Amino acid sequence: MSEDARWLAAAAALAGRARPLSRPNPGVGAIVVKEGCVVARGWTQPGGRPHAEAVALAAAGDAARGATLYVTLEPCAHRSLRGPACADIVSAAGLERVVIGVMDPDPRTAGAGLARIRAAGLSAHYLPSDACARSLSGYLLSSRLGRPEVTLKLALSLDGCIALTSGESQWITGAEARAHTHAMRARHDAILVGGGTLRADSPRLDVRLPGLESRSPDRWVLTGGGVPVGWRALSSPEAITTMQGVHHLFVEGGARAATAFLKAGLVDRLLIYRAPVLLGGRPALGDFGLSALAQAHGVWHMTERRQLGRDTLEVYEARKLHEG
């Protein structure tokens, strides 16, 4: 990995601090580097402004002169009522170089930001970065397909069950896995369960990790009926195209909702928390439309596996997402 690629990966990791509070804007990371040392850094602020570049360059001040700015997403080229174009801020900062990991698909920028920076006399480079693209995956998918990126979470026994035959399901996994689930909730704009799960369990679906309580996602339920105060209804998986400002959707339960999203082909990532227990109870999934075993192969790509106390987490991405 080149030096530029390493700094872009660092900016991508930094961008995680913005998510999801930066909505409706994507979470972007920026790092100002001079002579191999970090001068300043920034990420998109809550509500979407200031942008990451503006934060980093304001922190750097005069030290930005002659430095390199690494930013995960092409600086915006359009002015708005909320602030100036980042391409102009970058151009005026006295930088020597700018390195961008992802070009912005927003038609208001879409190459114009990079062109404006170059026109100001700076050395500006687009270096495609997988780390940056992954950090912006929800924004990029939403721009391409008009819907949020969907992560389906399943907490399973070894035999693929999510509850006893009686319906008892608290708790299949241990404290470490549950804490990790809360951390994942904190990274999503919205969380969804099925109507049956809402009626049976009355889940809170908030984030109960110290310091992250403010990052609890908006609560949605897959149902054709009414919803409690503080919840929003989604009539079908396909209706996620109407979820304005949502780049990352976390589907947490139950079996019917999970099956419905898989049947609709709308799951981009799987988080499977597997506990070392056998239940012989209620299966995690129903029939989601496979007519031949061959259709099941080659769909999912494992990207991560880790131990969480006694439990195991496996993360899979749909092959189309990994390759696209």
TrEMBL record:
Its cofactor is Zn(2+). It comes from the Bacteria. Residues 2-114 form the CMP/dCMP-type deaminase domain. Keywords: Hydrolase, Metal-binding, Multifunctional enzyme, NADP, Oxidoreductase, Riboflavin biosynthesis, Zinc. It comes from Novosphingobium panipatense. Pathway: Cofactor biosynthesis; riboflavin biosynthesis; 5-amino-6-(D-ribitylamino)uracil from GTP: step 3/4; Cofactor biosynthesis; riboflavin biosynthesis; 5-amino-6-(D-ribitylamino)uracil from GTP: step 2/4. This is Riboflavin biosynthesis protein RibD. Converts 2,5-diamino-6-(ribosylamino)-4(3h)-pyrimidinone 5'-phosphate into 5-amino-6-(ribosylamino)-2,4(1h,3h)-pyrimidinedione 5'-phosphate. The keyword NAD does not apply. It catalyses: 2,5-diamino-6-hydroxy-4-(5-phosphoribosylamino)-pyrimidine + H2O + H(+) = 5-amino-6-(5-phospho-D-ribosylamino)uracil + NH4(+); 5-amino-6-(5-phospho-D-ribitylamino)uracil + NADP(+) = 5-amino-6-(5-phospho-D-ribosylamino)uracil + NADPH + H(+). Binds 1 zinc ion.
